[in-house]
TrEMBL record:
One of its GO terms (molecular function) is phosphofructokinase activity. SUPFAM superfamilies: Ribokinase-like. The keyword Transferase applies. CDD domains: FruK_PfkB_like (cd01164). Keywords: ATP-binding, Kinase, Nucleotide-binding, Transferase. The lineage of its organism: Bacteria, Bacillati, Actinomycetota, Actinomycetes, Micrococcales. Belongs to the carbohydrate kinase PfkB family. The keyword Nucleotide-binding applies. PROSITE patterns: PFKB_KINASES_2. InterPro entries: Carboh/pur_kinase_PfkB_CS, PfkB_dom, Ribo/fructo_kinase, Ribokinase-like, Tagatose/fructose_Pkinase. This is 1-phosphofructokinase family hexose kinase. Residues 23-305 form the Carbohydrate kinase PfkB domain.
Amino acid sequence: MILTFTANPSLDRTVELPGPLVPGGVHRIGADRTQPGGKGINVALGVHRAGLPVLAVLPAAPTDPLLGLLEVEGLPHRASPVAGRVRTNLTVLSSPGQTTKLNEPGAELSAPEVDGLERLLLESTSPGDSVMLSGSLAPGLPADEYVRLVTALRARGARVGVDTSDAPLAALASALDSAAPDFLKPNAEELGQILGADGAALEAEAAEGRLDGVAAAALDLHRRGVGAVLVTLGGAGGLLATEGAAWYSPSAPVPVVSTVGAGDSATAGYLIARALEEEPPLRLARSLAYGTAAVALPGTTIPRPDQVRIDATRVVRL
C-alpha cells in the first residue's frame, strides 16, 4: 500500500485570463475550475489512476468541500477531523504563458488536532507500506514534524518519502543522521535551500548541460543516508541519485499549459515505478514522463497512465 500524508490540504482554484495579468487592473475570467489539492493528495491521485492501492491521509472537517471532491474522484482517504476549513489556493494563468499563485496559509491546528492527525497516520500504516509526506505544514504543526514522523513510521516498518521546503526541509536536512528518509524529492530551489545555494542557478546550469553541482549534491544526500534523491529541474529535466550512482533525464518538449502539480506527478511516477520494482533508470524515466504529461494538462490535473509517454523519455547514467 502507498499512503500519502497531506498536512496542509487545499482546494485548488485555477482561473484563466484571456490576456496578461495587469496589477491594479480589472480582469474577466475566461475559465474557472476547482480541484482537490495539496501535494500528498496530488500524488495519491496519480497512484490511484495507475490502479495501485493508495490511501490519502489528511486533516479536514467532515463537511469540508474538499472531501466531497475526493469522493467524486473515488480516491480512498481518511480525514482526521479539525475545526478549521481547508485553505484555498488560487492559480492565475495569463498570457504570455505566465502562472501566478496565491496560496492561503491554512487554518491553525490545535494540539489535540495535531495528535489526532499523527495518530490516524500511524494507525493507517502497516509494515512494508510506502508513506509519502508531502507539502507545507499547517499552522500549529512544529517545523520538525516530518523528522518526528520519519522516525515513527520507520519504526512501524514503513518506507518513508518526503517532499517539502523551507523550515521543515531545513529541520529534516539537519537530522539526516537519525531520520534520513528512504526517498527525498527536492526541486532545484529546495536543493538550493539544503545547500545554501542558488536553486535557480543550479537549474540554469542543468539546462546548459552542467550537471556536476546537482549530481554532487544529490549523491551527498544519498551518502548521508537518504535511500533515493529525485531532483526535479523544471524544463531542464530531472536527476536521480540512488544505489551509489546518478542518472539524468532531460525534459521532453511539450506545450506548457500549467506547471501546477507537475512535481507531484513526478513523485507519483516514481512511487508507481518503485511499486512495480523497476530499476533506477526506468524509475527516473517514469517519473519524468509523469511530470511532463502534467504540464500539458490544465490546472492541477494529474495524468492518467494513458497520457504518459515513457518511451519519449531519455535517461543517461552520469
